Amino acid sequence: MAVDGNRKILLTASGDGTLGVFNMKRRRFELLSEPQNGDLTSVVLLKRGKKVVCGSSEGTIYLFNWDGFGAASDRFALRVESVDCMVPVTDSIVCVGSLDGVIRAVNILPNRVLGCVGQHLGEPIEQLAVAPGGQLLASCGHDQKVKFWDISALGGMVVDDYRKKKKKGVPLLALSSKAVGNGADFFADLRDEAEAEAAGSDSDDSD
């Protein structure tokens, strides 16, 4: 759920793929959007309240214009399994938690995936929150851990409207020193454990 700055309109993302609009001051239901593909899992306000951004179980972000809630004005496929949760960092940038455990920074209009903020290795992201001041992002996943990530660099990022053509298979850019930026590092913990076990077995054999 999300509430506008005037605390008048309540927006809800629903499992039937619709965006619900409620007028809290008048205590009445206003509007239901057209159903989108998949469940709508999260909703935030951006662009000074002029844009409503919804995540979906299909890995697509849907954009709605304020006062144009009936149909999505734009959509942006992230090529992830799902968008389970979102939190705004600036007026244009949101951090997105997904089923693959990766936390992505995404710019809205122009629509760009900026890079990887962090991850819960192989575990779905349950919830995200930004600390007061906007310097830290907190995340929790199915690994029963709460992790904190430095997102101070996101506040000064400027995204050009011109989009360069990217090669397929290019890893996500790491946006913090602890973020995972490439596929090799993604499995670093597993690789280290395997190497440690191998070293242990070698020492046993030598004994």
Automatic annotation (TrEMBL):
Gene3D superfamilies: YVTN repeat-like/Quinoprotein amine dehydrogenase (2.130.10.10). Keywords: Repeat, WD repeat. Pfam families: WDR55. WD repeats lie at residues 125-152. PROSITE patterns: WD_REPEATS_1, WD_REPEATS_2. The keyword Disulfide bond does not apply. InterPro entries: WD40/YVTN_repeat-like_dom_sf (IPR015943), WD40_repeat_CS (IPR019775), WD40_repeat_dom_sf (IPR036322), WD40_rpt (IPR001680), WDR55/POC1 (IPR050505). Belongs to the WD repeat WDR55 family. This is WD repeat domain 55. It comes from Calidris pygmaea.
